[in-house]
């Protein structure tokens, strides 16, 4: 499964598709020129428990690092990932 990324204006999306629909996604907004607000993460029921949500958050972290952004995780799932994975602290806003 390949994680894809879309960014239009200030709205971004990391997602995985199967067929023609999204089976996992993480949405974010650029709330300032250097702050990503992760506000929604969702994984289809059949993929839950396979760390797909964490992989989406990690893709966002890697994107933030590449562009020197910080992340504000307002989504409860993303907040939990940041609490568990201290290696992501460098991008925490």
From TrEMBL:
- Could you say which residues form the signal peptide? none
Q: Which superkingdom does the taxonomy of this entry point to?
A: Bacteria
Show the PROSITE patterns listed in the entry: GNAT_YJDJ (PS51729)
Q: Where is the N-acetyltransferase domain?
A: 6-93
Which InterPro entries did the record assign?
A: Acyl_CoA_acyltransferase, Gcn5-rel_NAT, GNAT_YJDJ
This chain belongs to the protein called N-acetyltransferase domain-containing protein
**Taxonomy of the source species:** Bacteria, Pseudomonadati, Bacteroidota, Sphingobacteriia, Sphingobacteriales
């Amino acid at each position: 499964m390949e994680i894809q990324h879309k960014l239009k204006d200030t709205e971004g999306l990391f997602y995985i598709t199967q067929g023609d629909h999204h089976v996992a996604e993480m949405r974010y907004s650029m709330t300032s020129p250097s702050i990503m607000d992760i506000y929604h993460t969702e994984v289809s029921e059949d993929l839950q428990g396979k760390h797909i949500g964490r992989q989406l958050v990690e893709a966002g972290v890697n994107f933030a690092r590449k562009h020197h952004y910080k992340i504000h995780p307002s989504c409860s799932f993303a907040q939990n990932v940041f609490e568990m994975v201290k290696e992501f602290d460098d991008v925490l806003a």
